[in-house]
Amino acid sequence: MVKVAVNDSNYVQVDMKFISIVLILSLSSLSLLPRTTYSLYQDPSNPVNTDMFLSESFEMGPGSVAVKNFVNIKFPRGHIGVKSFDVELVDEYENSIPLYETYFHHWFAIRYFVNTAMLANPEPHLDPSKGYIFKRNAGTCNSYILPHYWGLGGESRGTSSHIPDPFAVELGNPTETPDEYEEQWLFNIMVIDTRGVQDKRGCAECRCDLFNLSKDFYNVTKDIHGQPLTTDYKGGLFCCQDNLQCKLRKGFQGPTRKVFLRYKIRWVDWDEYQVPVKFYILDSTDKVRSNGSEIIHDCLAEYMIPASDGEDTLHVQKAKIPIEKGGYLIYGTAHMHVGAVNATLYGQDERTLCTSTPIYGTGKKAGDEEGYVVGMSVCYPQPGSIKIHDGETLTLESRYKREFQTGAMGHFYIYLAEQVPHENVIS
Fold it and tell me: What InterPro entries does the database record attribute to this sequence (predicted)?
């Protein structure tokens, strides 16, 4: 198990193996003309810029699994405020790929700093892993679990990532960049090609019995805590490893194709008109406990839903999560899979802070695939109307249909601002 050290400023110093275990975890570009928009709180001379990029390509064949990390991805430079970050899967002709052909399990955009001096002058005796510092989000999960700033899955096309004015995610602040380091970003992705497979939903859920696992899989595979994986583990991230194969229908053959992530980023140059927000990821599997004065968060990132057993009720996964540093809620949404009903975040006084509900597709076009979660609703409360207090204990509940499911997720994404540009706010 990789040892991870986290200091008070939320930096994570790890070896490069961190990249491959996240969540259990030159690029070609297409530039668009900047789109200009203004708001009451925005300097008219500081327009919102928009750029579109393509990731590195990777090949997918029927039933194949791709778990990839793309480092130093194309990203706007300088001291900026990011307003939105949207991602989708496309083929080599930049056509959107429907989920029933290639299931987009997840994508994570992860922030890190690289020691440019060391990389520019490599020494054989130096450990290159010491040239990387990972900066996770402000969320509560244990060190390397859910560390990203942006990231969704199959619901990406239909879920808004827009942050309303005057709020933005501040990046590239030179005062936050360690000396001789440069801020960079990487993608961690998981994609499953379900063309011709025996069970599309089962493959998308990474059910272990549908993949060509080695005979000693359970003897050599470690769980999220570094312990041997037990045979009780029926499916999830560990059974969807890079280059594994989901079982195909007998005799099915299909072509391989190149796949890309196409991503659009909207941002402004940072100025006095911008109000920074902090990004938190909360997990409904978080098993919070204390070790004396220290609060320990044990997020599992995924969970299994047992078969119905005749009960006509929903399966509810609940976590009570203390928040050390609060703020005003600006944005909220959830990341969930097929079978999801909704996820709700409650305050300590049981007030509802945000409920995010899945949007299910009804057609065949990419973005409206029948039976798939193609979007999640987003909460945009009036700025200043909802405040999470420092030290407040929140309750997160993720609800699914009560039917057998592996790899279910109930992640909740929120942006919090320490201040809002209004006088009429709650205290």
Answer: Stress_up-reg_Nod19
Contact 338, 426 (CB under 8 A): no
Sequence-distant (6+) residues with CB within 8 A of 269 are: 46, 78, 79, 80, 81
Residue 309: what pLDDT?
Answer: 80
Question: Tens digit of pLDDT for each residue in 204-235?
Answer: 999 999 999 999 999 999 998 889 999 999 99
Please classify residue 322 by burial: count the beta carbons closer than 10 Å to its beta carbon, then call 0-12 exposed, 13-18 middle and 19+ buried. middle
Query: What HEC string does the chain produce?
Result: CCCCEECCCCEEECCCHHHHHCCCCCCCEECCCCCCCCCCCCCCCCCCEEEEEECCCEEECCCEEEEEEECCCCCCCCCEEEEEEEEEEEECCCCECCCCCEEEEEEEEEEEEEEHHHHHCCCCCCCHHHHEEEECCCCCCCCCCCCCCECCCCCHHHCCCCCCCCEEEEECCHHHCCCCEEEEEEEEEEEEECCCECCHHHHHCCEHHHECCCCCHHHHCECCCCCECCCCCCECHHHCCCCCEECECCCCCCCCEEEEEEEEEEEEECCCCCEEEEEEEEECCCCCEEECCEEECCCCCCEEECCCCCCCCEEEEEEEEECCCCEEEEEEEEECCCCEEEEEEECCCCCEEEEECEEEECECCCCCEECCEEEECCECCCCCCCEECCCCEEEEEEEEECCCEEEECCEEEEEEECCCCCCCCCC
Beta bridge partners of 207: 235
Burial annotation 3-41 (CB, 10 A radius, 16+ → b, else e): ebeeeeeebbbbeeebbebbbbbebeeeeeeeeeeeeee
| Burial (0-12, 13-18, 19+ Cβ within 10 Å), 81 | buried
pLDDT at 20 (0 to 100): 46
pLDDT at res. 312: 77
Cα separation, 145 vs 46, in Å, equals 36
Count the Cβ atoms, other than its own, within 10 Å of residue 127. 10
The rounded distance, in Å, linking the Cα atoms of 343 and 336 is 8
Tokens of 43: 């300097």
For residue 61, count CB atoms less than 10 angstroms from its CB and return exposed for 0-12, middle for 13-18, buried for 19 or more.
Answer: middle
Predicted confidence at residue 116, as pLDDT, reads 86
In the chain, the N- to C-terminal Cα span, in Å, equals 44
